[in-house]
Design a protein that fits this description.
Blueprint (H helix, E strand, L loop, with lengths): L16 H17 L8 H5 L2
């Protein structure tokens, strides 16, 4: 989250379009679940 309260997702332009879509969907899932405010470890969050 940036200083204005918005989340920013930066995607590697070298990824294929399909990989970019999957990455965006993955990151949006983290935002929707509130993972950035979680006390769970990175490993726990990524393995959910």
């Amino acid at each position: 989250m940036d200083e204005t309260g918005f989340f920013n997702i930066y995607i590697n332009a070298r990824l294929s379009v399909e990989e970019q879509r999957r990455t965006i969907a993955h990151e949006l899932t983290h935002i929707a679940r509130g993972d950035f405010f979680s006390y769970r470890s990175l490993e726990e969050v990524e393995n959910m």
